[in-house]
Amino acid sequence: FASYYGDHMVLQKEPAGAVVWGYGAPGAVVTVVLTGDGGLVVMKKVTRVEGASGMWVTILDPMEPGGPYALTAAAGSENATLLDVHFGDVWLCSGQSNMAMTVLQIANASQELAKAARYPEVRLFAVAPARADAELEDLERVGLPWAVPTAENLGQGNFTYFSAICWLLGRSLYEARRYPVGLVEAAWGGTPIEAWSSRRALRACGLLGDAGSSRLGLVFRSPLSPALSSSTSLPQNPSGPQTPSVLWNAMIHPLLNMTLRGVAWYQGEANAFLHTDRYNCTFPALVADWRRAFHTGSAGQTEPLLPFGFVQVAREPAGREGKALNRGLSGSCSASQLSTYHQQSPADAFARLRWHQTADLGVVPNARLPRTFMAVAMDLGDERSPYGSIHPRDKQSVAQRLLLGARAVAYGEKKVVFQGPYPTRAVLEGTRQLLNVTYGQELVWRRRETQGFEVRCSSQHGWLPAPVVTVGSRTVTLALTGCGTLALALRYAWAEWPCDYLACPLYNPQGLPAPPFL
User: Fold this and answer.
1) Across 77-204, where does the E strand assignment appear?
2) Do 495 and 455 fall into the same domain?
3) Per-residue pLDDT tens over the stretch 155-193
4) How far apart are CA 269 and CA 249, in angstroms?
5) What is the span of the domain harbouring residue 123?
6) Which SUPFAM superfamilies match (predicted)?
């Protein structure tokens, strides 16, 4: 079998068929048998090893959720058997350090780790960090082979495995769906989207020249100092590779034969310093490219509009000192290492990035990002995080917001509210110098002293505060003092640190924050 098949694994359930593949002698006939209780044969498939590649591939018939099963591949006198195989939903979790943060690092870690034994039907697999200059067919290394969750493998160390966001989302999906869930982590801290993108996707955004060299000479000053050492032994520099496509080649391309149910993505902080204003192209291009690649690689078993959830990034508070990004890794920090992200990023880089994460449309799903869902995290910043405030410890709230999106978008639950209120229109009362902004949901005005709205009166002047006069059931009335009878543009929560913890101005009754807009 290929590297990412093993005992305790979860294969995708019906209506899709799970793809299974491996290696053998060219031309050899391979018989794949799925057996249930008492050795009862459930399914038998016969395939052949292709001479050129030395690989065999078969697609299992769609299976109802459940297990355990045994899966055997036999060729002549040789055979391999995988035990404790289940069928359920398989989710891929990818991104940079906020996805790589383990359960050991989050709020209430000890309680979360103690719950691991309650979820034996949620299974874990972690891809080892690796890079490659060409697309690989199989993984070079496995970080965590398929495993039943334990306190040990959920909290292996800092930024290793297992991903807290991935675990919390998968655990919640299991609670909602009540059948097995397989979680595949492929994450590396400090990495830009370009490293996770195929060359095909980068060309679509004009980021690869005709020369086609593997290195673009991209300038990226790493926010994680390589000089800092970890108190927990890390398998790699926590600031990962920046070179285009190297993580796609080594960590994603090998997985393309896997039949998936969905993707969770937590990345973007690195692109506050690299091609920030291309993210409105590179992110939709990555989503579309991954979907096409997984659909093709699984012979059509992974659906073409694979559900894709992502986290709209939080931020370190501007001007607040003492936030060393690596404090949780090194145990101490010097003055030169303080507030690294704030020192390096342009003044509104994170605000622009959040907007670009939605393909400049504010909410998802939309025409450029169909069948996607977003967890807004701008109100989950963590000033006291020992890992730097760019790494908030409240991953439970992030996962809960992702879960709502997954239930609504991936699983089609029509009554689930999964995003905060967003404006549908704005009407200017010029004579009274008021602007009435109507939202599509009921509003909760949580922080009256926080002013999140700004208005631009003319192209010659900058942005001015637009104080809130009143908040109605679905309408916010803003004062346009100093604007006269003309307002060219309006924006909300357009700041590096828009609001304190769970304290943005506007939410819906379900507790979801209104996302930023421009």
Assistant:
1) 78-95, 122-127, 142-147, 181-187
2) yes
3) 888 898 899 999 999 999 999 999 999 999 999 999 999
4) 21
5) 84-207+240-318+348-419
6) SGNH hydrolase
